[in-house]
Automatic annotation (TrEMBL):
SUPFAM superfamilies in UniProt: Hypothetical protein TT1725
Highest classification ranks of the organism: Bacteria, Bacillati, Bacillota, Bacilli, Lactobacillales
Taxonomic source organism: Alkalibacterium olivapovliticus
Name this polypeptide is given: DUF503 domain-containing protein
Length: 93
């Protein structure tokens, strides 16, 4: 069994309040859950209005497929949202 995850730090453009940030983060979380079937959550930087740290995770039996699924989710975030990816930390157990 493979446990794989990614901790993604993003800078959210055009976010001037926590309400703006919450709207964007909520959209990202729901999109990734529904399209890529990953476990998702906001894991840090709750008080900053333009920065978020998101966690995506997957459990599977094939390391390559798990990695491809996470990479696809990262690409989706980068292409569909007005955000800049600042840091990506890969976690594997």
């Amino acid at each position: 069994m493979i446990l794989m995850g990614v901790e993604l730090t993003i800078l959210i453009f055009d976010s001037y309040s926590l309400k703006d940030k919450r709207s964007t983060v909520k959209s990202i979380v729901h999109r990734i859950r529904n399209r890529h079937h990953l476990t998702t959550a906001e894991v840090d930087e709750w008080d900053l209005h333009n920065k978020a740290v998101l966690g995506f995770g997957v459990v599977g039996s094939n390391r390559l497929l798990c990695r491809k699924q996470l990479e696809s989710a990262l690409k989706d975030v980068e292409e569909q949202y007005e955000v800049e990816i600042l840091d990506v930390d890969w976690i594997e157990v």
